[in-house]
Amino acid sequence: MDRRQLLTNLAATGSCFALPFQAKAQALARKVKITDVKVMIVRGTWDWNLIKVETDAGVSGIGEAYWGPGVKDMVLNRFKEQLVGEDPMNVVKLYTKLLFLNGGYGATGGVTMHAASGIEIALWDLAGRLLQTPVCNLLGGRFRDKVRFYRTLQRPDRRPEDAKSWGDQVAEAKADNPYGFTAFKVQGDAVPPSSDPDFKEPGHDRYTNQLTNLDIRRIADRMERVRAALGETDFAMECHWKYSVNDVIKLCNAVEHTNPMFVEDPTPPENPETLERVSRATNTPICTGENLYGLHQFSQIILRQATAGVHIDIPKSGGLFEAKRIADLADLYGIWTACHNPASPIGTAASAHAAASVRNFRVHELAKWVDWWPTLVTHEGPFWKDGYFHVQDKPGLGFDINPDVAKAHLAPGEVWWG
Prior knowledge:
Layout: H1 3-11, H2 19-28, E1 34-43, E2 47-55, E3 60-65, H3 71-83, H4 91-101, H5 110-131, H6 135-138, E4 146-152, H7 163-175, E5 183-186, H8 191-195, H9 213-230, E6 234-238, H10 245-255, E7 263-264, H11 272-280, E8 286-288, H12 294-303, E9 309-312, H13 314-317, H14 319-332, E10 336-339, H15 345-356, E11 361-366, E12 388-390, H16 403-408
Parallel strand pairs: 4-5, 4-11, 5-6, 6-7, 7-8, 8-9, 9-10, 10-11
Antiparallel strand pairs: 1-2, 2-3, 4-12
Helix pairs in contact: 3-5, 4-5, 7-9, 9-10, 10-11, 12-14, 14-15
């Protein structure tokens, strides 16, 4: 079946989700096969692992796995042979197959999970293109047409040891804000090393998880300056899992009056009991999860109500369908969902489609920034408007990769789609 015949047949079977979608999917059963899987690495804020799944129908899907080394090797040397010849419409089955067949490679986390997540995203994009509907419609439909974003700021570029620089930074970000972001995140854990870069103060050690009383006073002071500069604009504070339980409880209580949107990753994620203790000892909302994999790991903090919000990194933790499962369980316990995001526009848009389909979704991250970031894809209009990603009524994720931009920023040794 060629592309024209395929799309003609699909158009004849309806265009809505739910039962009409099931009929369209049934019409495609065993008629389309995966012919190839490709990976290329684009060097942006990080080395982005972009994935393409090709079919004999002349339709392809694109996805993104979490950044970093090892993903391309896993996809090409393990996953590709396990996917070629398969029906791409069986998205969840194929994702499960990859985890089953690669259990010895750490299929519950790490590079194997990153790679499987990227494949899963590409398969959803492919399914949306085949069925001529946006990906969020395939995930149960949308609760919203736009997804709110917050922008993550790094520590101040100029004199971060100067308390004033923290208020100045967010004031500048709010003023120079062409995409209209309505929330920001600041690096609270950068305050102590910025103030004492050589770790000479009493109680400072590069490898302990201690916060001194002076650290807590400094961080609280910087957050007060951030709040004063932003007014009622939302902000969150990052901790990067660095602190012990008692110290971070004191810290959360010390910044409570600045009314942060949340404090992120206060303690290491592998111990849900300590996170639970922090959450129960403070009124400051906690958000965590970017280093967790799958429903099985997220369930430990959800069932304990150890967090106010789950922070899912979708190209890392299992892809779109797994994110829906996590969000649904969290919602059952009154826990909201947010998205961690260091991805390119491909992973970002995929994550935003999942966010559009989640009832209790609050806010989505945009991490580090390069000026050419939005131009990597052929998105109509600005990628964000008034601080929101607007879901376009186009098949799949709604765009293609801009070859000129991608080729200009390929990682060393990479070529266009390998």
